[in-house]
Design brief:
Elements lengths: L26 E9 L6 E9 L14 H12 L5 H8 L7 E2 L10 E7 L10 H9 L3 E5 L8 E5 L6 E5 L9 H27 L21 E11 L1 H12 L3 E7 L18 E6 L5 H13 L4 E5 L15 H8 L7 H20 L9 H5 L12 E3 L2
Parallel strand pairs: 1-3, 4-5, 4-8, 8-9, 9-10, 10-11
Antiparallel strand pairs: 1-2, 2-5, 6-7, 11-12
Helix pairs in contact: 1-2, 3-8, 4-5
Length: 389
């Protein structure tokens, strides 16, 4: 069967993709933000605590058909599968309120800048971004323009003109390390620019969103606490988060989900000044990669490395919530741990870590045992994690 996707007969897919709503006390809203008319600008999806609104619409998980083409190319190596992918997942929605009214917060929400993995884009971590926003964070999920996104675009100053930036494989004859190292530096710089954007908004600067959403960025002005900023990412985004700590002192800590440590140059390891929480899946990491993480934990006693048993690399993305057959056709074997449990463990560990290092008042610390475990840490009701400490 040359087609890498299951037959798309009526009903064969069940609900196709059911992303979980946030479990925290806040409802979650979401909007897209594009700033600037060149590739040096920024593109991100913002998740934030919002006010309830009757008849709220939910955004598409795959924002436009071009992203299906990019995904088909990256994951299946066959752009012609894009139409099938579009049928399978093109109508899936994210359970958040699109352009929902922002919920002001006088003492300010902490901010997380989120960096996607290789071949992904800004919406593919909606489940974890939604969950964090539901607990009172503003989360800015970047779409990187270093040719590592499945595809992305910017709007030139000419009215209505878009320029697309395709995914790029390592050029023939070029060493992968040099290619990826250049990308990771660009990505970390984009994380810093995203922080600058929010610092500008908080300082009262007017920032036009060229996507002309019905949502004014100035509502954030008095509701962000920019002394409490973290950077987070998955895979290539995980190592991007680590590098962002080196580039920007305002980032207080990083959460690296299954970080792909390969692109980081050795000379930078002693330079990482702040704590990192590495949450690894069981099947992705190599001994060399974990050794690199351990070098960081020897520099900072607050850095933690935990491994979730029964998980694969894609379990920390929204793809974990695809039905089994479709998931395994695209990615191969899936993890044995239920994706809702994976998400719960990931976010609880991240929340406990963020509470500690951003000095938050909320009580996220009930999972501190996970961060403080020595050897095999058994988490209450979920003996699923192993700590490398």
């Amino acid at each position: 069967d040359p087609v890498s996707l299951p037959r798309l007969g009526r009903g064969s897919m069940g609900g196709m993709l059911a992303l979980p709503p946030g479990q925290g006390p806040h409802q979650v809203g979401c909007t897209d933000v594009m700033v600037g008319h060149t590739r040096q600008g920024l593109f991100l999806r913002l998740f934030y605590p919002c006010l309830p609104r009757a008849g709220a619409t939910e955004p598409l998980w795959i924002p436009r058909s071009e992203y299906c083409g990019g995904l088909a190319d990256v994951t299946l190596g066959r752009r012609w599968c894009s139409a099938l992918l579009s049928i399978a997942i093109g109508s899936c929605k994210v359970p958040v309120s699109w352009n929902g009214p922002f919920k002001p917060h006088s003492s300010g929400y902490p901010l997380i800048i989120f960096s996607h993995g290789l071949g992904a884009f800004r919406t593919l971590y909606s489940s974890i971004c939604t969950e964090l926003a539901s607990w009172g964070f503003v989360v800015a999920a970047l779409e990187h323009r270093d040719h590592s996104a499945a595809t992305t675009y910017f709007c030139t100053a000419e009215a209505g003109t878009e320029e697309w930036i395709p995914f790029q494989r390592v050029p023939q004859g070029q060493k992968e390390f040099y290619f990826r190292n250049k990308q990771v530096h660009q990505r970390a710089q984009e994380c810093v620019r995203a922080l600058r954007l929010f610092q500008g908004i908080a300082g009262g600067r007017s920032v036009p969103n060229i996507l002309r959403q019905d949502w004014d960025l100035s509502v954030l002005k008095d509701s962000l606490d920019l002394t409490k900023v973290a950077v987070m990412g998955h895979s290539f985004g995980g190592v991007t988060a680590v590098l962002a700590l080196v580039k920007e002192p305002s980032f207080r800590c990083a959460v690296a989900l299954d970080a792909w440590m390969f692109p980081l140059e050795n000379v930078l390891y002693p330079e990482v000044p702040k704590p990192v929480l590495f949450i690894n899946t069981e099947k992705f990491q190599t001994p060399e990669s974990v050794a690199k993480m351990k070098r960081l934990s020897s520099r900072n006693s607050q850095t933690r490395i935990v491994t979730m048993l029964g998980t694969v690399h894609e379990d920390q993305t929204d793809f974990a919530f695809l039905p089994g057959k479709l998931f395994s056709r695209i990615f191969g074997r899936r993890g044995t741990l239920d994706p809702h449990k994976t998400l719960a463990i990931t976010t609880r560990a991240a929340l406990a870590f963020l509470q500690r290092h951003l000095k938050l008042e909320e009580e996220f610390g009930q999972w501190d045992e996970l961060l403080d475990g020595v050897g095999d840490s058994v988490v209450p009701d979920a003996p699923l994690c192993r700590s490398h400490l």
